[in-house]
Specification:
Chain A is α+β, with helices and mostly antiparallel strands. Chain A contains twelve helices and eight strands. In chain B, strand 2 (21-26) and strand 3 (30-36) form a beta hairpin. Classes of the chains: A alpha+beta, B alpha+beta.
Chain lengths: 346, 347
């Protein structure tokens, strides 16, 4: 029978030996007196006797006691683990583990930190949700409010039959027309302009009367092919569209327009940025020679031209001299403000 | 600010940055990582960029078995950093490994155990390396203190406790009392020197060259520090230096004992010196209770008996000596938030 099995049986027996008696028995089986054993282990006899008698008061800390037991067993060529396990069990009943002596673990602090971590995570999630909601609202507002960017307005104000995000055709027919004039000159038609055809300056045209706009909305739409509102001949075509089936709406007085119109004609390729007073980006692209861009917004406009000499600028039909803003690198950055007494530019 | 915020999502960790093995103890979880301090680096062309091929166990398996474009290196030597960049990469890998379920980049507070003989430059290198690996704050603790706490010694009491930590690169001996070090010494002898001694012995006596991995296996299997009742044997293969071909031969534990005499003598001398330098009252405490052995070197067969015979003082081996330092670091981690710190140095 191996020693381990023997010890296991002893421990299993309710009348079995204690850990100290196990050591004593093992020593006596090897016929070694306690004095000789103490000499071999370099331990005081009193300490060894206390170990065999399980006298906790005369023994040092647990780490030493378990080390003595391990050395004791190994000295007798026995497997130390069963003896160590027995002593651990005994020491566990007697005293708490000495490993944390002098160290306050403060589990409460750890729990507090964990709770704080969860609260912070919830707060962060709430902030992220709020930011997402704000961003979504910001993205939608231009669609709902009047001064929408050119591209958006084309989709919402003048649905040409296929736009899902704009007001429906029935709604446009039934509802009294809101004269949001001038709402027409939003974007240019690069395709037609690229062909070199003459482009009528948008500023030269008068704003469309509201009834006509309503009729056009209720009728065939503009351009018929989703080209949106265009300057030049395309816009002229809309004027000739017959308002079939549309009842003539009472013509409300045209609302005073807050928007002003900028026309940019490109004689050479130029990077162009135009922002209105609300910081809304009206133009932001590289334009080729021959292109004409018409934008409308609330002044003052912040304008940046990559090649100022290659751009002609008209503000509400009046030409703007951009040459005075041209820098050495041929760029121009300036602000156009109609409120200035000197004229349109500043 | 951001690192403090992200620190809320990182666990405080203590690192036993050993020459042979790196152990990481995560606060509230215990030891979660125990891997060799080895990094394999790939460099496909001369002068080209280097990349980490493997770290830890996988890299150790490559030691001595790499092709030309891969180099398996041990960035720690003699308990301190020998290769700063590689150590930083290794720490980065280990820190991320113990935080692998987190979304944010881990930014933990890190407690690192350093040899008591490390110079200020070496300590700074360890600190910078940990900061570079993503640590939010770095604390250093001397290895003997961590080992004593891990072994469960009552170092806060007015009793002398002597600890001998035999690591891979260094052996630290210290006498502790009232949460402080009364005496400490560090000798650059450890498991690596044992391996080296075995390699030299085999080359000298058998004319055969064996690798580090083989030497380490011999040490674990039949290594002994004191003559035992039975002689163990082991078959070893190496390259015959004269013939240039692999050859097999048998080593026994007495030969390894002979091979290890020199490094063992160095450790015993360090212990004797420490006992001589210990104040009498504390020396009496040590003589009554004994010396506690920790570290991987404590697993060398009968090393406790050797020290016991040489010093005449009882010697006990701590429970699970390989992890004593890491466990001690883990216990100190629990006290990081306390105002009064007895053991730590954060600057």
């Amino acid at each position: 029978m191996s020693d381990s099995t023997e010890v296991a049986q002893l421990r299993a027996d309710p009348q079995g030996l204690g850990p100290g008696e196990m050591l004593t028995q093992a020593r006596e089986e090897h016929d070694i007196p306690i004095e000789e054993m103490a000499r071999r282990l370099r331990l005081p006899v009193t300490t060894l006797r206390a170990l065999e008698e399980c006298d906790r008061g005369r023994l040092p800390e647990n780490a030493y006691v378990l080390g003595y037991v391990r050395a004791f067993a190994r000295m007798l060529d026995l497997d130390p683990e069963p003896y160590v396990a027995a002593y651990k069990s005994w020491l566990g009943e007697q005293t708490p583990a000495s490993g944390t002596a002098g160290l306050d673990t403060r589990s409460g602090q750890r729990q507090g930190a964990r709770r704080a971590r969860w609260i912070l995570m919830v707060l962060l999630a709430a902030m992220a949700a709020a930011a997402g909601l704000w961003w979504w609202q910001k993205g939608r507002l231009p669609l709902l409010s009047a001064p929408a960017p050119a591209g958006d307005r084309r989709a919402t104000v003048w649905p040409d039959g296929g736009e899902a995000d704009g007001p429906s055709r029935e709604a446009a027919e039934a509802a009294p027309v809101v004269p949001s004039a001038p709402r027409e000159p939003v974007s240019s038609a690069p395709d037609s302009e690229a062909s070199g055809g003459p482009v009528e300056p948008a500023a030269a045209r008068t704003p469309e009367p509201a009834p006509q706009a309503a009729v056009a909305a209720a009728g065939q739409g503009i351009g018929g092919a989703g080209t949106g509102m265009e300057t030049g001949p395309a816009a002229g075509g809309r004027d000739t569209a017959s308002p079939q089936g549309a009842e003539p709406a009472p013509a409300p007085p045209p609302a005073p327009s807050e928007g002003h119109r900028l026309v940019l004609r490109f004689k050479a390729q130029s990077w162009t940025e135009v922002y209105d007073s609300e910081g809304k980006r009206l133009l932001f692209d590289l334009y080729k020679p021959g292109q004409v861009k018409t934008v409308e917004g609330k002044p003052p406009f912040r304008i940046r031209l990559g090649f100022a000499d290659g751009v002609e600028l008209l503000y509400d039909g009046r030409p703007v001299d951009v040459s005075r803003y041209v820098r050495q690198d041929k760029t121009a950055r300036f602000t156009l403000d109609p409120d200035e007494s000197t004229g349109a530019e500043r | 600010m951001f690192s403090r915020l992200s620190g809320l999502f990182s666990n405080d960790i203590s690192i036993d940055l050993g020459t042979a093995n790196t152990l990481i103890n995560v606060r509230g979880k215990g030891i979660v990582l125990n891997e060799p301090s080895v990094v394999a680096i790939r460099q496909d062309r001369s002068g080209g960029p280097k990349s980490i091929e493997a770290v830890g166990t996988a890299a150790k398996m490559m030691l001595g078995r790499t092709p030309e474009n891969i180099t398996a290196i041990r960035p720690m030597k003699d308990g301190v950093i020998a290769d700063f960049t590689t150590t930083e990469k290794m720490l980065q890998y280990f820190i991320r490994k113990v935080h692998q379920t987190k979304l944010l980049r881990p930014s933990p507070r890190v407690l690192i155990c350093v040899p008591c003989g490390a110079t200020q430059v070496e300590r700074r290198a360890i600190r910078e390396s940990a900061l570079g690996a993503g640590a939010r704050r770095v604390y250093l603790i001397e290895e003997p203190i961590a080992a004593a706490i891990g072994a469960g010694l009552p170092i806060d009491e007015p009793h002398g406790s002597m600890i001998l930590d035999i690591g891979g690169g260094t052996s630290e001996v210290a006498v502790l009392s009232l949460n402080g070090i009364v005496y400490s010494a560090s000798v650059r002898i450890g498991g690596d020197k044992f391996d080296e001694a075995i390699i030299n012995y085999v080359r000298r006596n058998y004319g055969v060259l064996i690798g580090e991995a083989t030497a380490e296996k011999v040490k674990h299997t039949i290594g002994a520090a004191y003559p035992g009742k039975e002689v163990l044997e082991m078959e070893v293969k190496g390259r015959n230096l004269s013939e240039g071909v692999p050859r097999s031969f048998t080593l026994n534990s007495n030969e390894i004992l002979e091979a290890l005499q020199e490094p063992l003598y160095g450790i015993v001398s360090a212990v004797k010196t420490a006992l001589e330098a210990t104040p009498p009252e504390l020396g009496a405490d040590v003589a009554e209770r004994g010396i506690v052995l920790t570290g991987g070197g404590a697993l060398l067969r009968d090393i406790d008996r050797l020290i016991m015979e040489e010093t005449g003082i009882p010697v006990v081996i701590a429970e699970d000596p390989l992890t004593s330092v890491a466990r001690g670091g883990g216990r100190v981690l629990e006290t990081l938030d306390q105002k009064k710190q007895h053991y730590l140095r954060s600057d």
